[in-house]
Amino acid sequence: MKKTFMGVRLRRLREERGMTQVALARALDLSASYLNQLEQNQRPLTVPVLLKINAVFGVDVQRFSDDDEARLITGLREVLADLPAGVGGEGAGEAVSLAEIRELAAGMPAVARTLLALHQRHRQALERLAALGNDRSGEGVLAPHPPMAYEEVRDFFFARQNHIAELDDAAERCAAEWGLLPGRADEALAQRLLVAHGVRVVDAADLPGQAQRVFQAEAGLLQLAAGLERGQRAFQMATQLAFLEQGAELQRLADSAGLSGDQARALARIGLANYFAGALVLPYTAFLRAAEAAHYDIDRLGHQFGVGFETVCHRLSTLQRPSARGVPFFFIRVDRAGNISKRQSATHFHFSKIGGTCPLWNVYEAFAQPGRIVPQVARMPDGRAYLWVARVVSRSGGGWGVPGKEFSVALGCDIRHAPQLVYSRGLHLANPEAAVPIGMGCKVCERDACPQRAFPPIGRALDVNENHSRFAPYPVAAPLAATHRS
């Protein structure tokens, strides 16, 4: 474990419980002078002390992890990049250095989160002003403009590190009680629907809007799209069982998430039901043991549990039970145009919120190699390195002329966890030169020499030099008169 200085967080823990230094030192069986050194960042917080804090106060040790610090650093850098010239960052007369950002994120995380929240409200206010300027009604009154529902739900899962313990535990109990077998869960789930709820499962050729599941409560009928594989059928039945048997818990979790409206809460219930379904088909303990035994070989796990590549990747990103953690993964699904339709993170990797992803990322290279898993060791501008694996998944439209779906699905982890993955074999994990330099996107990436840069970072002046062009956004046409003379 590297040296971790968490003095401010330790003081905050003490203040929250109304304890003096002497009282906290006594509770943790430490000397008062040693605790004072910890709080003043003169000594690093060690694993034994963390375990004592967990045992005495029941505090999750992730609260003292540097994963949260990395998320805050990335968010603060985006805030500074998004500020106009003259308001912080470059061009303001006093730039905020990366060292100062790190100090704020590490020492005062609550302040950092407050700044991020204020910036989000600032951007929402700008959007309302822009809408007001385009208002043609003459009333000049705009309703509040909350964040989009899917963004709220995404942030809810992100705040929980993509692990919903209540649903995971319930799903594991149900899987044991109902006798679900790996690769054959669909049989037991169909039986559960029929016996416990009087619901028959039938195949249907033409469901509306390319839906995969339609539930008719009054008729006691669950229609599944024809052509689904066994794992897909199991997932759809498990999702319906989540609504039938865990409805109250889904509602409680959605209501307690602090979401802004009914649409966001409804979307949260769907996301939570899908989470329960994945946990039911791939029970936590059995799946984690299988994943560790297979060194996280996604295809092997898919064959063992009868599910697809994307389902395995998504489930791997949720294995963060405090008593039995798997590798903390990030999961992403993107199309050819760069639209991110799914993104989940169990750790510090922070997906950019201000547009664009990096074309050097292997999630795009996977489209050129369909059917193959494409590994990549990638390094971010802050020096952190990651191992990513990506593969294209596709789904037929169901008939001639019907558009299908095609996505690149990627799973990534911090380089320190890479040796646990089968995909690290043969890769130069310790060689910095072997890593591909990528970024969060051109708007926030400071790699000036990147050959794929599309435009300069936000807030940075464009270097315009007739004799030495560092950046040309588009070819400059010849003057009209010169063209005429030629």
Automatic annotation (TrEMBL):
Pfam families: HTH_3, Peptidase_M78, ScfRs. Keywords: DNA-binding, Transcription, Transcription regulation. Signal peptide: none annotated. InterPro entries: Cro/C1-type_HTH (IPR001387), HTH_RamB (IPR026281), IrrE_HExxH (IPR010359), Lambda_DNA-bd_dom_sf (IPR010982), ScfR_C (IPR018653), TransReg_Diox_bact_type (IPR050807). Belongs to the short-chain fatty acyl-CoA assimilation regulator (ScfR) family. Coiled coil: none annotated. Residues 10-64 form the HTH cro/C1-type domain. GO terms for molecular function: DNA binding; DNA-binding transcription factor activity. GO terms for cellular component: cytosol. The keyword DNA-binding applies. This is Cro/Cl family transcriptional regulator. The keyword Transcription regulation applies. The lineage of its organism: Bacteria, Pseudomonadati, Pseudomonadota, Betaproteobacteria, Burkholderiales.
